[in-house]
């Protein structure tokens, strides 16, 4: 069980990091396009 709990933890961390990175990228892109629209 210990062998697999390490893999599960790594998968969770990588998935969470990818999700956060994707959300941050989308937020920055949306903010950039909205700023261009205002000009």
Automatic annotation (TrEMBL):
Keywords noted in UniProt: Membrane, Transmembrane, Transmembrane helix
Q: Which parts of the chain span the membrane according to its record?
A: 6-28
Name recorded for this polypeptide: Heme exporter protein D
Q: Which organism is it from?
A: Deinococcus hopiensis KR-140
């Amino acid at each position: 069980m210990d062998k697999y709990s390490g893999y599960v933890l790594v998968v969770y961390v990588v998935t969470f990091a990818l999700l956060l990175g994707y959300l941050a990228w989308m937020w920055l892109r949306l903010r950039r396009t909205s700023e261009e629209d205002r000009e």
